[in-house]
Design a protein that fits this description.
Low-confidence stretches: 14-29
Order of helices and strands: HHHEHHEHEHHEHHHHHHEEHH
Mean pLDDT: 85
Distance between the termini: 154 Å
Strand content: 5-15%
Oligomer: single chain
């Protein structure tokens, strides 16, 4: 067929191509491809959602800013009112949590958890030292943590009065209690192993045992930093001993006495532990009489109960303590013990050098809480029989 035929067919038909007509004649319909219609949001709804989102973001931002500002005020110590200054002591048995609790209670911080987090992040949680410090509400978190370290400029001072007759162990316990030292072990180590530069210690008390300083830690009232370097703390006591005892006057008396300085201190320590306060020279006379007349009285045995207390743990002595095998047991060994049993004050040191003229060998504490002195053992026993304190059981 010619091209003209097809052109006529196209014009005379319904505009349908032969292919399409074939489909219609066969009863088949041509498939139609349709795209799904999108639901179109209204402009108003979209604007509302955007506004809600923006409002939420702004609200959260404001909330976070407020929380951040409040936290920053605590971290940076801003606007803390009223101003407050405290003396704050950290003890050896405290952990960081309890320290934070007390800082909050004292008003130094507001948020304990935030303070702990700050300390953890800045690696200062383990930097706190036992001692007493001066803190105030102007100090931010960093200053508070720095102010509770051993080398802090905020270390407080503490005044410690050491009583006459305290042993080395009692002095160490007192210094720890007052915050001068972190623990007893560091004081023991400083006493045992540091070679202090004092002539009175050389070639007399060898290193290795902290009791070597017994008798030389002079009782007095001292001011210490808290915490204080243990060596410097003990050195302070030794310096005072040196200034009070190692004088021309005292050392001349020591030389005239026929005893060494250490022996004088040993006698003085027993006097200090035995005296009621008004009888030092008389107790000194009894000790000298027993030492210098070994064939009379107690036959050279000092029989001082205070030496039993020194070796039995500090309790009231009982009869069985007299059998404790120790060179400090003056019931078991004649003469002086190997060293002082306490740290005597100057009154007892002077009494050890200048006993009274008494010829007594015995003394006992009466119901009136004073010592009574006797020349013979029979006189002593008669007195004891007359006292309720010895016969109440």
């Amino acid at each position: 067929m010619s091209q003209d035929y097809y052109e006529r067919e196209r014009r005379s038909g319904n505009g349908r191509s032969p292919g399409r007509r074939e489909h219609e004649e066969s009863g088949e319909s041509r498939p139609q491809s349709r795209r799904p219609r999108k639901k179109r949001r209204s402009a108003g709804r979209t604007a509302g959602l955007v506004l809600l989102y923006v409002t939420a973001v702004i609200g959260v931002s404001i909330l976070l800013a407020c929380v951040g500002w409040v936290c920053a005020e605590d971290v940076l110590a801003l606007n803390k009112q009223p101003h407050k200054e405290i003396t704050f002591t950290i003890t050896a048995d405290e952990d960081f949590d309890s320290v934070a609790d007390r800082l909050k209670k004292e008003g130094m911080i507001e948020y304990k958890s935030l303070f702990k987090l700050f300390a953890t992040i800045t690696h200062k949680k383990d930097s706190l030292s036992v001692g007493t410090y001066t803190l105030d509400t102007d100090m931010d978190y960093r200053a508070l943590l720095a102010g509770m370290r051993a080398n802090s400029a905020n270390r407080a001072q503490v005044r410690v009065s050491i009583p006459e007759g305290y042993t080395v162990d009692q002095i160490f316990s007192l210094l720890v209690e007052k915050g001068v030292a972190a623990d007893i072990e560091e004081l023991q180590d400083a006493a045992a192993n540091h070679d202090y530069s004092f002539d009175f210690l050389q070639n007399v008390v060898p290193l290795g045992d902290y009791h070597r300083l017994e008798g030389y830690l002079m009782p007095a009232t001292y001011d210490f930093y808290t915490p204080h370097d243990p060596i410097y703390a003990l050195n302070k006591l030794l310096v005072y001993f040196d200034s009070e005892v190692i004088t021309d006057s005292i050392m001349e008396q020591v030389e005239e006495s026929g005893y060494t300085l250490r022996e004088v201190l040993t006698i003085a320590s027993m006097i200090e532990r035995e005296t009621t306060g008004e009888d030092r020279e008389d107790i000194s006379a009894v000790i000298h009489n027993r030492l210098e007349n070994p064939s009379a009285g107690t036959q050279g045995y000092l029989q001082i109960d205070a030496t039993l207390v020194y070796i039995n743990g500090g309790r009231e002595p009982v009869e069985s303590d007299r059998n404790i095998d120790s060179p400090y047991n003056t019931y078991l060994y004649k003469g002086l013990p190997p060293g002082p049993i306490a740290n005597p004050g100057m009154e007892s040191i002077v009494a050890a050098l200048k006993p009274s003229d008494s010829k007594d060998f015995y003394y006992a504490l009466g119901d009136d809480n004073t010592h009574h002195f006797f020349r013979t053992y029979d006189q002593l026993q008669s007195f004891i029989a007359s006292q309720e304190r010895y016969n109440s059981n």
